Amino acid sequence: xxxxxxxxxxxxxxxxxxxxxxxxxxxxxxxxxxxxxxxxxxxxxxxxxxxxxxxxxxxxxxxxxxxxxxxxxxxxxxxxxxxxxxxxxxxxxxxxxxxxxxxxxxxxxxxxxxxxxxxxxxxxxxxxxxxxxxxxxxxxxxxxxxxxxxxxxxxxxxxxxxxxxxxxxxxxxxxxxxxxxxxxxxxxxxxxxxxxxxxxxxxxxxxxxxxxxxxxxxxxxxxxxxxxxxxxxxxxxxxxxxxxxxxxxxxxxxxxxxxxxxxxxxxxxxxxxxxxxxxxxxxxxxxxxxxxx
Length: 293
Ligand code: SAM
What we know:
The chain is an alpha/beta fold.
């Protein structure tokens, strides 16, 4: 591919030469703005000892930038046509592992196993395909890998969800779980006009920086269950939502006492609870389960 991978002329020329039509169903909207690529890179604090996982490299706009800055890039692209373009275009880079796979089907720890012995800093940078944003983020954060940070270009609405406060309509399971693991920042707004083809909505760059202390992580699966119950039935009171966590939380009277004990009115909706309040319930669930087993 001659020219900068982000120039709209180069993109159109490559697509026509390869007889490739962008697939809406795969969220194929390619970045055409060098400044945005640089901004994503800067948000990632890229360093020579980083290992970066990129989801959906597309035509390689971000990939090339990463390859020049970090030790190793593992890029996972579902579209075979794009993989063949990338293989050709990025053949000179020896620090690229390009996998033609569905990120949702990939065993990520197994894929990155070979890199775990070196002292790499594990990061994810990606312009995510919008139709699977939430499952991809959950899959990445639940992979058990020692991520330091993740930078995503996502729909603006998803960015709002990640930084939402309790009771806001955007506040959801993803907000709480990521808030537990680290801190989220909205780095910048990205208008739909910088993509080809242009999507219907605007985007934003978000950065998740993971907590260094990992000792609280044993609470994660309990918090996940509580949060899932609370947001799976948003309109229910927290009391009714939690009764689905049988058999541990099935007795309403005991559960009512437990909630009051934590200073939580059982009639509140789950979506109004703060992270700290969810954590209180998760600890109760953890102790209820460990006592029974
Ligand atoms: N990184 C490129 C850019 O910024 O110009 C392309 C980003 S585009 C929004 C999303 C990319 O994700 C596309 O290349 C698409 O083919 C790829 N993709 C879609 N679904 C995928 C999946 N399940 N696993 C891996 N890649 C996927």
